[in-house]
Specification:
This is Pyridoxal-phosphate dependent enzyme. Helix content is 46%, strand content 15%. It is an alpha/beta fold and 313 residues long. Helix 1 crosses helix 8, helix 3 packs across helix 5 and helix 5 packs parallel to helix 6.
Amino acid sequence: MIITKQHLLDTHERISDYIHRTPVFTSSLINEIVGTEIYFKCENFQKMGAFKMRGATNAILQLSNTEKEFGVATHSSGNFAQALALAAKLQGIKAYVVMPSNAPEIKKAAVKGYGGEVIECEPNLQARETTLNEVVNKTGAVFLHPYNDYYVIQGQGTAAMELIEDYADLDCIFAPVGGGGLLSGTALAAKHFSPNTKVIAGEPMGADDAWQSFQKGEIVPQTNPNTIADGLLTSLGDKTFPIIRDYVEDILRVEEEEIISAMRLIYERMKLVVEPSSAVALAALIKEKEKYQNQKIGVILSGGNVQLSKLPF
């Protein structure tokens, strides 16, 4: 599927009643540290606390009435789980969410709070997929993939669309990358609405399958990821990767201490609650700040669903 400018415009109109148009914040002190003008798109203020509400809503709104009767299902360690549960609740349909047993308790509780049914499994991809298949076979629910789905990608792209509408002359947009839904959507938004704006990804060194895939030109599966950025543990999909390969300028890897340092900077200087995955994009920009001096940079803060009792600083 080729995602066009019109697809993104239609998506934004379709989901606008169900999402927040999130604010864009700046910090003169962080600008001084980095040596550039940064515009933070605050998806931590999105409904359910992350950008994934956009894609989940768009995917559900594409279902037929017959499909909606049986509900929706997914597997997710956190934010898409919450997004699907809330988006389903707003449409009056059932959501079944397979979550690994080691997913943050705050995220499991949120899914249940939104009316979703949590089915726990062993914390590996095979267990997630096997359990999901059992749920789908038993309930007839429609499986919606957390990121490797064109409707989800279109939804995620609306965050960058809004940022570009507010600040039309950005030199770059930085976003984190896990499965690639946000990054591929951001790249398409830039391509269609601000073609001179480059899209750069930040990725943890301990979960760098996207960087490896980008270098090799084909998908390199994630193996034994180890990072505090628990939202970025998944492999790229066959729908997200080609978009990233064709339209993303670069993927920059960051160490754990760089992620924690960027996260702390956001807390201390901007008074914003963000999860570690959100800080990865800023960490990447800080690491390569010499390259981006005096530019106008958008940074997507992807979410704020963090377990406050387990802050890394």
